[in-house]
Every structure is written in C-alpha cells, then in structure tokens.
C-alpha cells in the first residue's frame, strides 16, 4: 500500500492481515511504537474473542464481543448479529476495562471500626466472619421485640454493575415488605405499574428494532442513554422512519433532527398527552375498532351507581399475589341482575339496541362459547423491518407475525356504542342513565384544546395540532418511547398512563414497532430465573406485603397507608418492586408505625429517590447495614459490613434483554474475579440466607417438581442456580393443535424450534456459537397484538396435576388484556378503586366532572410559577434535572479515567440571555438553590433551552474526596428535592420541575471562600480537568498487581 | 488514493463511543484525545430567531489527513509524512518533539504526548485499515454517522455519499491545506 | 496557545545575535566603529549559543535530529541552515579579524546579509496559515526591527565602553533611538493588526467537554491587550518596559554616552525584556484557525 521508506513497524503492529490481528489494542501495552510482530508472537499473542453481554449500564444488556489476550480484557465491542442491539456498544461498555481493573474496587469483606458519619476505618475480615456478623446483626434487629420482625429490615439496590438481583427475591424468603429499590420508585416502576394497571406490564418498551413509520421519543435520549432501546437501534429507527417526534424541554442529541419538536414546560407532559388525544378525537383519527373491541371505551358508566366489584390480581414475575379490591361505577351484570357477575361488564349494542355483556375472566362476549382467534391464512402477515432486505443477514431473525384484527365475529351481531346516553334498569328497579366510557374520556380530554395546552405547556398550538395529526395519520404508526422524566414531576402514574392511552387510541399497542412491553419470558418459557435470580419460594402474604413503608397505615394496618398500590406494584415485578423511600426515611427516624433499623443492599445509593440529605441522616442511624458493592460510594460508607461484588466481566448468568426487542443469551465469565469478590446475588442466596436460616427452596418439593432434580438442597449452589435457569425451559403447547409456530406460517420457514439446553454449560456453548437468540423466532413470542391470541393472559397455574409440572404456562389464555375489565383501560378501574390521596394539596387542572380517579388527571407540579407563584418570585427558574450523559450511568463512572477526563465536573444548562442577566459566563461555578438547599455546578450557556428553565446534571459525587461523604452534597441535585412532593399514587419523588434560583459562586458566598468545591475538612479540591494527576492513579491495575491482591 | 472519513453530521448524537473506542484502541495518554466531538450551536436558525427556533449539530473533529498537509511541510525531520493511502502519519522514531506541526495545524488536532515525548494524532487506525478493517471510530459510531473509504475511488461508498450530498458537503476551513474529511450537513447552516 | 518559553528565548536571542552581528559588520566599515568588532562578535556569538541552546531545550528528543534532516524545506531546517551559515560566518569573521585585523568588505557584507536572512527565515517559519495572528508581513518586520534595535543598542553600549569617541558614541545612540522608534511603530502596527482580527476567518465551536474552560475568542486579542487580561503584559511589558523606558534611558545617555553606560546597558536589557514580553503576547494571540 505504501512505498514510503518509513518503517511501517513504527506505528502499525500488524504484520499479518488477519481479522484477529486487526482487533489488537494496547491494553497493557504502552504504545504503538513499542509493539512489533515479533514481540506479540513472543508472548503468545493470541487474541481470543468471546461472546457475552454487557452490563456497563443497568439496561440494554447489549451483546458484545470481548477480546482477551493472555487472560486480559483488551477490547469490548458490539456484536452486530444481536437482534436487540444491532452491534451497539456505548462508551461505557467500551471503557469497561477501566472499571474491571480499577485499583479502587472493593476487594475484600470489610468491617467498620468507627462510628457512622466519620471515616469508617474499614478493616479487612474474612468472608465467613462477614457473613456470620451480618447474619447476627440482622437477626438482632429481627428478633428485637420492639421491632416488626423482618419488616424492620429494608432493601436498597441500584441496577448493579455486578450482576443480579437476589435482593429482589430475598424479601419473599424472609418476609420483609420493604422490598425492592428506591431506584425503581423513580425509574420504570411507575411506567411498569401504570402499564399493568391499564394494559400489561412495561408497555413503554417499544419494539424499536422493527422500525416504525413514526419515531416518537417522549422524555428520552436513547441515542445516548440506551434506555432499553440501544442507541444504535434508536438512531436507525429514526433514520428509517417517515415522521419523527420528540417531546422534551431541551434541544436533544437526536431529537434535534425530529420533524416535530415539542419543547414543553417541565411537568406538563400529562396535559400535552391529553391535548394530543383530544385533537385525535376531534379529527376522528383514532382507531375505532381497537377502541370498541379491545378497550373499555364502550363500557357503560352510571353516575348513579354505588361502586362495587370484586377482588382482582394480575401477578407477573414474582409469585405472591396481592389482590386489589376493585370497586367501579362501570355497569356490571351484578348491578342489573340479582346474583349476576360483577366481572361481566355492560356495553350498549347499537345493532340490537340493548345491553350486551363482556365477561372479563373468560374474555368472551355474550354469545361466544370460546375465543374467536384470527384466521392464520387470512388475517396474518409476516412483517420485516422496512429497512431490511432479504439479503440482510438478520432479515429472518427480525421477522414477526402481524395480525390484522378481523373485528367482532359477525355471529355476535355486535357493534358497541362509543357515544350516547342509554337508559338501563338496575336490579333495584331504578332506571338510570348510562354513558359509554369513551364519551366521558373524550369529555375529559376536551378541556385540553391545543390553545389551552399551548398556554399551559409553553408550546405552540399549531405544533400540538400538527403533531397529533402526524402521529394518527394512520393506525400503527409506531410506539411512544416514554422514559424517566415522565415519572419525576409529581404526577408519574397519571402521566404514564395518559401517554399509553395516546398510543392505545391510535392502535400502537403491541404492534410492529409499537408499544410492545417484553416477551414475558418468565411465564412463557418455564424459566424461573426472575431477572437473573434463581427461583425462590415466596412466603410474602398480602398482609405482609401491605406493611411496607408507604402502604402501611399509621396505626400499622397493612395496606391502609398513603400508597396502597405499592405492594400490588411489587407483584407486577421488575423495577415496580419498591417501597416508599420517603416514608421509609421518616420511619427510620421516627420508628412509627414500626421501626426500620436495618438495611441490605446490592449497590444502591441514598441520592436517587427522596431527599438525599434526609436519606443520609436516616441511613446513618441504622443499627445494621450490610451491603455488596463494587465502589466506595458515599452510601456504602455508612454500612457496617461491606462485601466485594464481582464486575460483570467476572461473572456468568442468563441475560434476557429487558426491552421490547426480544433477545436472550448469556453473560459469560471472561476473567478471574478481582481479589475476593463474589457474585453478589449468589453469596446472598447461598451464604447469607443459610446463615439467616432462610431457605431459598422448600424442603418438600412436591409442589415444585422441577426443583426435585436438585435433591434436598434448600439453597442452590452456583452450578445449580445456573442450571435451573436454563434446563427448566421447555417447549410450549402451541394452542393444542393450531399450527401456529413461532413466526407463523411457511414464509419464514421457521419451525418454532424451542430453546432447550441440557445444562448451563450447554447453554453457554450454544450461545458462543449462535449469539443472541431472537425470541420472536424461537417461541410464540413472534406474535404482535398478543391480545388477539390470548398471549397476554396466558394461563398460569402453580401445579398442573396432569403433567405434574409446576407453573405450566404457555397455553394461551383469554383474549384481551390482563386488567380488571379484561380490556385496555381508558377508564382505569384500579385507579378508580384506589383514588390518590393528595393530602389536601390541590394541583388538579381541567377537571370538569367528578370522575377524578378513573380518567386521566392533569396535575400541576408541586412547585411551579402557577402552583406556587409566591415561591416563583424568589425562585424564578424552573429546573429540570438529569439529562442523559453517555459517559456516566447515573452516579457511576466518576472514577473511571476515560470518562472523567471527558467530563470532569457537573454542568447545568442555562440560556445565554438568562446567564447574561445573572452575570454568569460559560464555565462559571454557580449555586443552584431551592427551598431545601443549594449545590454548585458549572454553567453551560445553551441556547437550546427556554430562558425560564435550567437543566442540571444529577448523580454527582466525588470519589477523589475523602470518606465517608466523598463530597456527595457539594453538587448532588437531590439535595434540592422536596421528598414530600410525591406522585399521589405510587409516591415517586419530584426530581424535576421544581423552582430554583441561580447565582454565581464567589469567594464571599462559598464555604471557606473557595469557589471550586472541595472537601471541607481536608481542603482537597475536586478534579476539574482531564490533566489532573489523580486520574492517573485510577488507571487499571496491571495483571501482576491484580494477582498480588 | 485518499482514505478519508465522511461524516453525516445530522446523525452524530455525541455519544462518545468513538472517542472512547479510539482511546482503547490507540492509547493516547490521559488528557489527550485523537478525536473530539464539537457542539456547533445551538444557534438561531435565522438571524434574530430565539428559542425554540434554534439548531445545532455535532462535529467529530480529528486529523483531516490533508491533501497538502501543513504539518508535513514544517516537519524538520520528515517524521510527518503523507502516505500513499492518503493518510498522514507520524514516524515516532523520527519525531524530535519540536511541535511546529502542532502550531501549523489549522485544526489543532496534534498534541505532544508528554510520556513518549513525540507528537501524536489520529492515525486513521492505520494498524486496522492496513489489515482491511476500518478505523475504530467508524466501527463504534452509534448514529451511523461515520463512513470510511477512498475518496479518489468514484465507486466507493464515501465518494457516492459526497456526490449525492452536493452542496450539503462541507470541509473545515481550508487555507490551502486541502482537508479531506467531508462533513455532510442537512437542513442546517454550516457554520465553520 | 501555550507559551513556549524556550522558543521565546530562542528568537529573542537570535535577534540579539543577528542584530549585533549585522550592526558591527556594517558599522565597522567606518573605522571609528572598528574597535567594537571583537566584543560585538563575542556578544553575538554568545547570544547565538544561548538562543540555540534554548531552542534545543524546546525539543523533546534533540538527539534524534542529528542524521535525519528529512525535510529540507521546512522552516526549522531553513532556520538551522541559516543559523549554521551565520555561525560559520562568525567564526570566519573572528579568525580573519584575529589574523588580519580587518576582515574585508566582502565578509562584512555577507555577514550583514546573512544576519538579515537569518532573522527573515526565523520569522518566516512562524508565518503559518493556521495562525491568523502570526500570518502577517508585520511579523518579519517586527523581528527585523527588534534585531535592529537590539543590535544598535549593543553597538551603542560597546562604543561607550570600548571607545573614547564621543561623537561616534552619540551617533550610535541616535541610531539606537531611531531603531527603537521604528520598533515602536512596528508594535503600533501590530496592535492595529490585532484589533482587526475579527475578519480573519476564525471559526469557533464549543468543544463539548470543554464546557468549564471555554475557548477564548481569538479575535478578542486586541481588546485583551489594550484593556483586558493582557493589558499589563502589553502596556507594562511591551510598551513601558520595552519601548518607553529604554527610549528615555537613551535620550538621557545621548548627551554623555560614555558616562551613561549604565543607562545604555539598562536600555539593552529593557528592550530584550520587551521583546520577550511581545513574543509572549504573540503566543497568547496564537490561536489556530478553528478554535474549540
């Protein structure tokens, strides 16, 4: 190639033109000029490439290729064959070696020797000592008669760069109701739970790798956050879409390219969603058939009816149902006929001029004897993403079966009315007026004309109108990807479900490229690995669950607290497992209604949910805190015993992608663990749990036959835990004879080949060869519109005596949705039955009727120019927080050199005009102050944000500053939060959309006269530039150094 | 032959995958980067516009592997050389660290490596492209913005992209050095 | 851009050297100035060595330089050649002076010309298209006048120290004053040039991670040096120290040059310092075309 006389050897290490050689990266080599082909061959320079999954963030779990040389990870890159991520590998994944080999990782079990709040004085102890002392410390709390048994121990966890979530399952074993993660309460929990209330769990996950006509981001930046849609997939989806919409206050990384950009006032997403629906209703661009057949839009509301109903549950991942008491004004057979069913709901059949009932439990209309499935020949079509051609490698893998709704069976002679007033006679003889839900729903959203919404949301009315028309141009344009900010402005539940309704009325629920949810792996494939944790024998009863902080009443009555739906959300699973952090913190301090004295954590921090200062003070007072961690975070510095966790490259387990893409594979152990670190989940399960005398598996396995192969074991070994995650998978019974295999009929040539493995090792071996499996190809997941096929309500039994199989699932269940009415609920019967306790704070906007709870409600943020104008006078800026920074995953990465040198200090974005008024220039350290406190960040003058709004980074702390605080309160925005400004349904903290003031930091107004934040005791200054020598100390340990540990 | 990187600016989302991938592959010292993402804007779309009528794009900046590189002409030892494949490389054994090339580069993409005492910059991952691969940044790009190929070959993907782009294709300011990285920008005003 | 002290010292001392060498060569064509040739030569040679060493200090691995001059047309190599030629000429001059007492016109002309060439070549190597603030004819002009000032000053100093000729000494002072005045005009011209840089084609973008230390607007150099953060350097260092005070000192010493050796010596040092200050300012102005 080059005839230049200069030696190629000087900067090209590669002598051979092999693909492997091209993968070379320095790693432990020190520079191009030092490598030569001879040197590489001399130290046996073979590079191995191993397939695995990434866990550098808590979300996508992108399949990766890891290059290893002499047992050393030298490169991480995306696996392009992956269905869920298309080869995505973000900067965090690529730089993960710096976490893996970081010199400051926690290496040994440690015990504190100083009081909490000081430098802990950690001393090393053995694993055995640690487990024993932890068990003793926890048991002491549990056995203290002043406490409330295991409820006095709370769980804390983050998303874990380690591996898995045994902390989510431990409560089921020991019986603490204070389960789950504070993170979940402000992250995904509301989305998952609100989805489960009206449709099914996690519908915010869009099947983005299908591509869609409309690319719709709402409060999300997936291109840099990879939030359950890989950045690459999001970018491709946008490129291949016909129209694109982005809703968010700021000009965003990808959103800036969208056709419709709605830069709304933070906290007004609920009103915007209603306005968009309103425009769609006015223009009649909704999908009428979907609304009639699959929503409770046609169900009749009777004002003059005493709400009544039934007990109901729709448990998902975690065994342990938490029934709800559904009480509704929807007209039921039990209201009209003595002895009638409260689960048969009335609609007005326009064709016959009378009431017809829909039976929710069976999913059958009056007159049907069995489910009317679509016709595979006539109604089904195989779809491929629009941007793929048959020549593309993954063309087949991404194919899926779409079904055109054939409509109501003709024989029913049924056409439910969506509008009108109808007279019905109740069983008590009264004749009352009944109105379809849809009419009430339309009335509710009618308040939000584009003009009203424009004023409320600080948007242009025509833009709102055009956006609604673009999105509803035809049904099935694409799903709405709505993420974190929606849950952070004090009306999480309502906002989430309203956006989902927008997707629903335009027929984008479980469509190709639509709001898909996940593939419900756990219940359709007999794998009992609940989010990567082995099956656990649940012991939590509803009375126990109802005692969690937030749900427990002031007098200790289960479920009588402010947030009665929290325990129910917990049995929906995933991130919806949480207790109320705010109440918990108060409970720790007050001991009422019962003391909370201990904590167990697997990662997790005190500054993501609730108010950080209050949480810190509370955690300091705990009698015993045991935690597993990778890093010396401020929160773990409050622990009593700390256990070293493994990094994801040091561990193996099953990885099902948690998104709508349907991927399944293995995370593989690449290198030996650092020092004495262990798989955190497993050591909790088979070391801590036995020490606590808390069996994971029952002694009598007759009710759980698949566990029988593990003999008498009540706690799995690592091998057993891993084996059971895959060997229990077995093929499904495909509708007893219908030839409906995965992917449908012959075009795909698929045989629905099941995922089946002899052992975990077999699984890993097959994974190495095959790569990530597309569940849409391998199982009955390949259907869209699963409500047409009964796959959203598949039967779950605990024990099928015929097959003698535990939890035989995989049989399709009733058609429709797993909700109380069996339909997509525009009228939420769950929220109707559990109206929010707003504690007398009136924030509702636009309610012109009495149906507060069943229909979507708009609430003004707790602190805003309109809600608290007197506060606005002194705090004249609305702050939103936490825009996605690709380098950091929330509070992680501050100690990784390649990340920190690119972004050494926190920034807040402020419009240049506002900055000029305040005398602030680019890069200035400034105070951001709310009524709760103040922190410092640097100013980024950004014209892509409204001059009345600022946006500040979240999650900041400074690893370079001393223990225990590591400077967490210098720049962390959760200092500013009002922990009592909570979502009235699920308690999520208002983390964004509150009022602040900003002023430049000067020596006069800074503690100890220093503008740049520093540790108050030692005067150590934070790292402010990529040239700081302390970054050098954070470079990876060499292999020799690691081995010496 | 002129290997070059063509960037579709609208697709760059500033995710830093390329920046970190480059670091892992090429190991420049802490504080030095061979590629940097610039944020151009937000600027008013038309003069006098205010938020929300603003636009912005990201621009991955790196060595432009110029046709007539300034750095090559000032280098006293000939360490800086333009190769046949069009890339500009530094022979580290010849570099005396005078840093005139650093001064001469109109784009400030070169920097002294204080540990190895030679000047470094983007090599277009010569070690990878010599083996038929792509530069790391191109492989890593999340948004699909980066493309690599031979601009002097009319049938290459990059040549076609540039031809299609017409007047939407731009280069950085050219003072006679002939930067070869082409930046394609849709719908927005090129401001560099 | 980052201040490169070794290079600042290098160019200043080369100016001192070339200026001295040039002036003694030309002046010594008149015999009243012949006396200062030897001390002048030593001064010039010493300055050359100091400057040369300073430039070597700037190099990271100077040892590599030997044996591979690869690119003969590069500015640095041209400097090196010019330096070499001047050094050789100085040696020849010295040898001839010692042997014959008079080096002859030809050598003097060559010496003077080479001195000018050295300064031109050196300044030209900094005229880069990438640096609008340096890419001006004013740069070689400044260097020449700086060299001339320094040379004239050294000449005047040596005359006062080594000769008894008051008239010749005064004339030397006058030449020095003229040179410094011209230097001042060059500085004024540069100041005007700096203030006009707005249209130089600079473009700015925000380096996304450089949000804490934003790029300085390179076109603001004029404002910065007249009234901003560089005002002290300019008004204090370049103008007061480097031009006004030395002129004042020269005006004083002109009356009785041989009695005011201190003042003349001070003027030499001040102009030298002023030259360092101006070059520091040049580095502050040195921003590449694309700033981020």
UniProtKB/TrEMBL annotation, chain B:
InterPro entries reported for this sequence: 4Fe4S_Fe-S-bd, 4Fe4S_Fe_S_CS, ET_IronSulfur_Cluster-Binding
Pfam families, A to Z: Fer4_11
Top-level taxon in the UniProt lineage: Bacteria
Coiled coil in keyword set: no
Residues covered by the 4Fe-4S ferredoxin-type domain: 54-85, 86-115
GO molecular function: 4 iron, 4 sulfur cluster binding; metal ion binding
Keywords: 4Fe-4S, Iron, Iron-sulfur, Metal-binding
PANTHER family: PROTEIN NRFC (PTHR43177), PROTEIN NRFC HOMOLOG (PTHR43177:SF3)
Name this protein carries in UniProt: 4Fe-4S ferredoxin
């Amino acid at each position: 190639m080059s005839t230049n006389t200069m030696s190629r050897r000087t900067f090209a290490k590669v002598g051979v033109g092999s693909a492997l050689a091209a993968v070379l990266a320095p790693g432990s080599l020190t520079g191009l000029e030092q490598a030569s082909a001879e040197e590489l061959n001399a130290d046996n320079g073979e590079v191995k490439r191993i397939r695995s999954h990434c866990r550098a963030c808590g979300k996508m779990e992108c399949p990766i290729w890891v290059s290893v040389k002499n047992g050393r990870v030298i490169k991480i890159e995306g696996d392009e064959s992956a269905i869920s991520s298309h080869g995505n590998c973000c900067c965090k994944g690529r730089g993960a070696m710096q976490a893996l080999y970081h010199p400051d990782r926690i290496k040994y079990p440690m015990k504190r020797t100083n009081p909490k709040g000081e430098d802990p004085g950690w001393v090393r102890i053995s694993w055995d000592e640690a487990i024993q002392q932890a068990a003793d410390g926890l048991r002491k709390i549990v056995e203290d008669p002043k406490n409330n048994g295991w409820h006095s121990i709370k769980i804390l966890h983050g998303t874990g760069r380690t591996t898995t979530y045994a902390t989510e399952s431990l409560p089921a074993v020991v019986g603490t109701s204070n389960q789950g993660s504070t993170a979940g309460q402000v992250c995904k929990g509301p989305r998952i739970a609100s989805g489960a209330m009206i449709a099914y769990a996690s519908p915010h996950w869009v099947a983005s790798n299908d591509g869609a006509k409309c690319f719709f981001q709402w409060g999300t930046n997936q291109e840099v956050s990879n939030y359950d849609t890989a950045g690459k997939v999001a970018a491709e989806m946008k490129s291949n879409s016909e129209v694109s919409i982005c809703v968010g206050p700021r000009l965003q990384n990808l959103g800036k390219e969208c056709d419709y950009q709605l830069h709304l006032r933070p906290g007004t997403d609920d009103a915007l969603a209603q306005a968009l629906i309103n425009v769609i209703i006015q223009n009649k661009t909704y999908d009428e058939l979907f609304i009639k057949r699959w929503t409770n839009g046609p169900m009749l509301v009777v004002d003059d009816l005493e709400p009544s109903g039934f007990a109901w549950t729709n448990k998902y991942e975690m065994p342990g149902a938490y029934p709800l008491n559904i009480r509704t004004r929807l007209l039921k057979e039990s209201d009209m006929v003595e002895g009638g069913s409260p689960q048969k709901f009335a609609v007005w059949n326009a064709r016959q001029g009378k009431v017809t009932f829909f039976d929710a439990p069976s999913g059958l209309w009056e007159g049907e004897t069995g489910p009317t499935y679509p016709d595979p020949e006539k109604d089904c079509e195989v779809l491929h993403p629009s941007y793929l051609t048959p020549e593309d490698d993954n063309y087949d893998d991404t194919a899926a079966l779409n079904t055109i709704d054939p409509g109501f069976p003709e024989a029913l002679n049924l056409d439910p009315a969506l509008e009108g007033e109808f007279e019905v006679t109740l069983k008590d003889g009264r004749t009352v007026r009944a109105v379809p839900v849809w009419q009430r729903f339309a009335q509710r959203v009618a308040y939000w004309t584009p003009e009203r919404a424009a004023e409320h949301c600080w948007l242009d009315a025509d833009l709102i109108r055009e956006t609604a028309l673009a999105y509803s141009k035809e049904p099935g344009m694409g799903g709405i990807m709505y993420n974190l900010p929606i849950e952070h402005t004090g009306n999480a539940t309502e906002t989430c479900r309203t956006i989902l309704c927008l997707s629903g009325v335009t027929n984008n629920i479980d469509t190709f490229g639509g709001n898909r949810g996940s593939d419900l792996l756990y219940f359709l494939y007999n794998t009992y690995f609940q989010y990567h944790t082995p099956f656990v024998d649940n012991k939590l009863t509803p009375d126990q669950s109802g005692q969690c902080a937030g749900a427990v009443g002031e007098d200790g009555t289960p479920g009588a607290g402010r947030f009665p739906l929290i325990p129910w959300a917990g049995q929906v699973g995933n991130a919806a497992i949480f207790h109320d952090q705010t109440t918990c913190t108060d409970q720790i301090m007050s001991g009422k209604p019962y003391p909370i004295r201990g904590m167990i954590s697997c990662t997790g921090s005190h500054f993501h949910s609730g108010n950080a200062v209050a949480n810190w003070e509370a955690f300091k007072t705990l009698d015993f805190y045991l935690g597993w961690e990778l890093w010396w975070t401020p929160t773990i510095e409050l622990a009593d015993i700390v256990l070293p966790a493994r990094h994801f490259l040091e561990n193996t387990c099953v990885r099902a992608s948690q998104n709508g893409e349907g991927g399944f594979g293995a995370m593989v152990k690449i290198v030996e663990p650092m020092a004495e670190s262990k798989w955190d989940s497993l050591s909790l399960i088979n070391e801590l749990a036995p020490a606590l005398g808390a069996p994971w598996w029952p002694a009598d396995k007759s009710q759980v036959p698949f566990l029988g192969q593990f003999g008498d074991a009540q706690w799995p070994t690592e091998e057993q835990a891993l084996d059971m995650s895959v060997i229990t998978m077995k093929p499904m019974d495909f509708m007893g004879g219908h030839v409906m295999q995965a992917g449908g009929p012959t075009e795909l040539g698929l045989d629905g080949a099941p995922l089946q493995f002899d052992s975990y090792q077999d699984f890993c071996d097959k994974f190495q060869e095959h790569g990530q499996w597309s569940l849409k190809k391998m199982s009955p997941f390949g259907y869209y519109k699963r409500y047409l096929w009964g796959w959203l309500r598949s039967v779950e039994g605990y024990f099928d005596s015929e097959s003698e199989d535990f939890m035989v699932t995989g049989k399709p269940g009733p058609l429709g949705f797993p909700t109380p009415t069996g339909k997509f609920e525009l009228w939420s019967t769950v929220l109707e039955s559990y109206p929010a306790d707003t504690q007398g704070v009136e924030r509702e906007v636009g309610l012109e009727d009495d149906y507060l709870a069943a229909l979507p409600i708009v609430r003004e943020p707790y602190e805003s120019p309109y809600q608290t104008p007197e506060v606005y006078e002194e705090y004249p800026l609305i702050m939103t927080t936490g825009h996605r920074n690709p380098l950091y995953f929330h509070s992680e990465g501050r100690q990784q050199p390649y990340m920190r040198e690119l972004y050494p200090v926190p920034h807040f974005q402020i419009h240049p005009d506002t900055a000029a008024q305040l005398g602030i220039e680019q890069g200035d350290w400034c105070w951001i102050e709310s009524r709760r406190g103040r922190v410092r960040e640097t100013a980024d003058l950004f014209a892509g944000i409204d001059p009345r709004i600022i946006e500040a980074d979240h999650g900041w702390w400074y690893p370079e500053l001393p223990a225990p605080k590591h400077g967490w309160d210098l720049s962390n925005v959760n200092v500013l939060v009002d922990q009592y400004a909570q979502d009235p349904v699920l308690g999520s903290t208002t983390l964004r959309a509150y009022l602040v003031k900003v002023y430049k930091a000067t020596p006069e107004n800074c503690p100890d006269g220093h503008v740049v934040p520093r540790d108050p005791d030692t005067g150590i200054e934070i790292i402010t530039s990529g040239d700081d020598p302390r970054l050098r100390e954070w470079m990876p340990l060499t292999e020799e150094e690691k081995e010496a540990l | 032959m002129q290997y070059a990187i063509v960037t579709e600016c609208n697709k760059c989302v500033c995710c830093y995958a390329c920046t970190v991938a480059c670091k892992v592959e090429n190991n420049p010292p802490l504080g030095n980067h061979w590629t940097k993402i610039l944020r151009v804007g937000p600027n008013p779309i038309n003069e006098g516009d205010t938020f929300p009528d603003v636009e912005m794009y990201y621009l991955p900046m790196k060595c432009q592997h110029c046709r007539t590189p300034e750095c090559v002409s000032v280098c006293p030892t000939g360490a800086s050389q333009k190769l046949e494949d069009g890339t500009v490389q530094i022979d580290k054994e010849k570099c005396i660290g005078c840093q005139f090339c650093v001064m001469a580069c109109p784009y400030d993409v070169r920097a002294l490596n204080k540990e190895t005492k030679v000047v470094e910059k983007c090599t277009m991952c010569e070690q990878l492209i010599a083996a038929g691969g792509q530069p790391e940044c191109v492989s890593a790009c999340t948004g699909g913005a980066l493309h690599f190929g031979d601009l002097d070959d009319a049938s290459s993907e990059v040549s076609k992209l540039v031809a299609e782009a017409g007047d939407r294709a731009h280069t950085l300011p050219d003072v006679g050095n002939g930067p070869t990285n082409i930046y394609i920008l849709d719908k927005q005003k090129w401001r560099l | 851009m980052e201040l490169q002290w070794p290079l600042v010292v290098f160019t200043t001392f080369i100016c001192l050297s070339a200026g001295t060498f040039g002036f003694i060569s030309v002046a010594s064509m008149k015999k009243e100035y012949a006396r200062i040739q030897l001390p002048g030569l030593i001064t010039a040679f010493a300055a050359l060595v100091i400057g040369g060493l300073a430039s070597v200090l700037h190099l990271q691995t100077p040892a590599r330089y030997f044996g591979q001059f690869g690119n003969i047309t590069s500015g640095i190599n041209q400097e090196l050649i010019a330096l070499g030629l001047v050094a050789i000429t100085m040696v020849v001059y010295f040898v001839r002076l010692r042997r014959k007492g008079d080096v002859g016109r030809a050598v003097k002309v060559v010496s003077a010309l080479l001195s000018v060439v050295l300064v031109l070549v050196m300044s030209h190597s900094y005229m880069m298209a990438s640096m609008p603030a340096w890419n001006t004819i004013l740069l070689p002009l400044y260097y020449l006048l700086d060299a001339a000032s320094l040379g004239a000053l050294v000449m005047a100093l040596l005359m006062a120290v080594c000769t008894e000729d008051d008239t010749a000494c005064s004339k030397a002072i006058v030449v020095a004053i003229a040179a410094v005045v011209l230097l001042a005009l060059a500085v004024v011209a540069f100041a005007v040039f700096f203030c006009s840089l707005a249209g130089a084609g600079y473009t700015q973008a925000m380096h996304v991670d450089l949000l804490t230390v934003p790029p300085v607007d390179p076109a603001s150099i004029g404002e910065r040096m007249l009234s901003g953060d560089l005002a002290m350097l300019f008004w204090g260092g370049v103008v007061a120290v480097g031009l006004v005070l030395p002129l004042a000192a020269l005006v004083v010493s002109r009356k009785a040059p041989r009695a005011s050796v201190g003042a003349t010596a001070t003027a030499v040092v001040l102009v030298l310092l002023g030259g360092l200050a101006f070059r520091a300012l040049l580095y502050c102005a040195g921003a590449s075309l694309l700033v981020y």
